[in-house]
């Protein structure tokens, strides 16, 4: 009689599943380790502050109202700057996607602009737009503009051509084809570009505030850093992280709403 | 309305795709275009509806489109070409929105075509929720909504499994026997051609020319899949095409 052998399972894997509790657990364990380390003296006070002290600083920021004093100007700058950059970036990106002449003219320009560290241009912007909010808006706007343009025209290029031919075959107007086929079709790419743009926006926000602002998270972190006040420095960094997570969650919510049709 | 092709030739660069095609699509008849793969039958269909321009020859519409026709030459595509972000009714209203019909009139048209394609219950569904057969029904409903003079069907059933194809063929026959339709139906499936065509035009391999025109007289509604006469016709068509198909299959692609 021939030998019997069970068929060995070889499939499976390579399929990320969402495990909700691991992420927070990593945070909790890490913070707990640092707390134990700083309390026991393994980690010196010069290396890292006690997480509990950072928390106390944060509570103090909250209760004195200093939190909003710094957070509100920062949020305004981020909102105005990235709105300017994203809206103009989407508009230019769509124009590049639709018109060959615009593409030929602007793609090299955007490519030249993209790798320039925008922070290097801040002194220039101070001359152009003033030391106040203007230069900060301009910096954040330019920083979010380039990645948005690139993501948007890439997304327009990727819109299913057979859907556009369908629109033409039903004699839809050019306007209808752009508004009802190209724009919604490019939306997934535009939104994922926005995710990157806004992260860059936060980085530039802090950079701009470090180079000349009285209030703002960046200014707060800079002050704490020059006094080597690690508790305040870390409190500021935590606020930035939370801001980043909130922005990303906001875009995630927007994606779920706008892209419900996706498979 | 008739559609008349005269001496139509087409090439992509150096590659001749169609050569001197003459074809007459008479009103109220379905003309099936069959031929080996790569013979240019889909290209011919795109030329007929103005999605591409022939290098030479002319394509003319003869006579008037029916009253209330919004888009005389209307396609049904193999890949359905539904907007995934619009519901079933949204996909149909898409082709009506540019005609400023008014909400009531548009709503009437949508309800009517959905009823005719048995989709009334699914008007709020998104394409991703529908099976392939249902998606193609939506695309057919969309084409009916503009009340076309000539329907241009590009392998409409080729993306579907054979059972769904059978069901949809019955639906098409039902639709077309209630209201006479002028159509051009491109397919590589000879069974579809003998079931749905009044005239079958057999194209040669590339560069495509019309090799043979076969007229089938029996009314669509009386044709059965197991009808020996149809099977004989299908057999004869295949015998005529077989060599060409074999030769086309052996060709090296020059791209």
Cα end-to-end separation of chain B: 38 Å
- CATH fourth-tier homologous superfamily of the largest domain in chain B: P-loop containing nucleotide triphosphate hydrolases
CATH architecture classification of chain A: Orthogonal Bundle
Rounded to the nearest angstrom, the radius of gyration of chain B is: 18 Å
* Shape type of chain B: globular
User: In CATH terms, what is the fold-level topology of the largest domain in chain B?
Assistant: Rossmann fold
CATH superfamily label of chain A: MetI-like
Q: Average pLDDT across residues of chain A?
A: 92
Return the structural class of chain B.
Answer: alpha/beta
Descriptive account of the structure:
- The complex is a heterodimer of chains A (263) and B (255).
- With 263 residues, chain A is mostly helical.
- Helix content of chain A is 75%, strand content 0%.
- Chain A has one domain: MetI-like fold, CATH 1.10.3720.
- Chain A has helices at 22-40, 51-64, 66-98, 100-113, 122-129, 133-157, 161-169, 174-210, 217-226, 230-258.
- Chain A is flat, with a radius of gyration of 24 Å.
- The mean pLDDT of chain A is 92.
- Chain B folds into two domains: 1-65 and 149-226, 3-Layer(aba) Sandwich (Rossmann fold), CATH 3.40.50.300; 84-147, no CATH class.
- In chain B, 35% of the residues lie in helices and 23% in strands.
- The longest helix of chain B has 23 residues, at 228-250.
- Classes of the chains: A mainly alpha (263), B alpha/beta (255).
- Chains A and B meet through helix 7 and helix 8 of A and strand 5 of B.
